[in-house]
Write a structure and sequence with these properties.
The chain is α/β, with parallel strands linked by helices. The chain contains 13 helices and eight strands. The chain folds into two domains: 117 residues, Alpha-Beta Plaits, CATH 3.30.70; 134 residues, Rossmann fold (3-Layer(aba) Sandwich).
């Protein structure tokens, strides 16, 4: 038996690509399962089981400054300044006073107002968020009263505050970006599936090509089953041999099927003995020793190639020399595209 360092075998890119194409249904299945787990979990967490709902109300105010040169003072009235005012005790006390006149007395508005100043420094948009729509609307209404009735007295630069727009509370919809989440889950799942199947293919060391029997184990291969060269090679290697044994490389193989493919390739009158895998039935080695020629049938994509190495070692110890080897249940689609036959 040929001694080969498997770790030094060149990486067969063509075979790997063809095997990945062949495994596309499995690849698609793993990817779909990954999408279901990742994106489905994201959807359940953020949509189905998201019990936390918030409502937001807002109002847009136009500020008339007391000074005619309003822009001199307005440049200091930015987002930061407004948000400080909205959290000040003086401002919040005034808000709570107006809230106490409604049905929402006792609500603490602290940290529940946010201000935004767009391009025009005379315009400010203030929002309030609450767990129910009525509370959010009530807070904005109280805020409106503070700004129009009390605020000019707090800040001397403010002349008058007018309401430009008032939006009652609506449900806050989170920007979940479901499509992006789906694409991300698909990419992650696909990469995981490819990595998993590549590791599976590279670690299982299965035999798919007839040339692997020669390159890895030093066996004479009959070639691609069904091709003209296949039968001619069998005739040459088994010429003059009257006692032929067809041996299975693993248990459970249909050796009659192998025999039918080669029944016209042996000498006329030659006896063909079918021998089960000697690893499963060691006594079969006796029949192999009596044979003049041994054809080893290897199932394509069968057990790990290490199992074949163990079998060849056993046959060598039993003084059984393998004449030739052939693939059984070969993948015709893969062989046709690999060898272009």
């Amino acid at each position: 038996m040929k001694e080969t360092s498997w770790g030094k075998e060149p990486f067969d890119l063509r075979l790997t690509i063809l095997r990945m194409i062949r495994l596309f249904p499995l690849l698609a299945g793993i990817t779909a399962l990954g999408i279901l787990l990742l994106w489905g979990g994201y959807y359940l967490k953020n949509v189905v089981f998201n019990a936390e709902k918030t409502y937001g109300a807002s109002a847009t105010f136009f500020i008339d400054y007391a000074d005619e040169e309003w822009y001199v003072n307005a440049k200091y009235f930015n987002d930061y300044t407004w948000n400080i005012w909205l959290k000040s005790d003086q401002f919040l006390d005034a808000v709570e006073r107006y809230l106490s006149e409604s049905d929402y007395a006792g609500e603490d508005p602290k940290n529940l107002f946010t201000a935004e100043v767009p391009a025009d420094l005379r315009v400010v948009i203030i929002r309030s968020i609450a767990s129910d729509p009525k509370t959010a609307t009530a807070r904005i209404e109280a805020l409106q009263k503070v700004l129009q009735q009390d605020f000019p007295a707090f800040v001397e630069e403010i002349g008058e505050v007018r309401v430009v727009d008032f939006q009652e509370a609506t449900l806050n919809l989170k920007d979940l970006r479901m499509f992006r989440a789906f694409v991300l889950a698909a990419v992650i799942s696909l990469l995981f599936a490819i990595t998993l199947l590549l590791m599976r293919e590279l670690t299982q060391e299965k035999i798919w090509l007839p040339t692997t029997l020669t390159d890895r184990f030093g066996l004479k291969s009959l070639g691609v089953p069904g091709e003209k060269a296949y039968a001619e090679t069998a005739r040459h290697l088994f010429a003059g041999k009257k006692k032929i044994a067809i041996c299975g490389a693993e248990d459970g193989m249909d050796l009659d099927d192998v025999k039918k493919k080669l029944e016209n390739c042996f000498e006329k009158g030659a006896s063909v003995n079918l021998v089960k895998c000697p690893l499963a039935d060691p006594e079969g080695a006796r029949s192999l020793r009596e044979a003049e020629g041994i054809l080893l049938a290897v199932k394509a994509g069968g057990k790990d190639a290490k199992n074949l190495e163990l079998l060849l070692s056993f046959l060598e110890q039993q003084d059984c020399k393998v004449t030739a080897a052939t693939l059984w249940k070969e993948d015709r689609w893969l062989l046709k595209r690999y060898y272009h036959v």
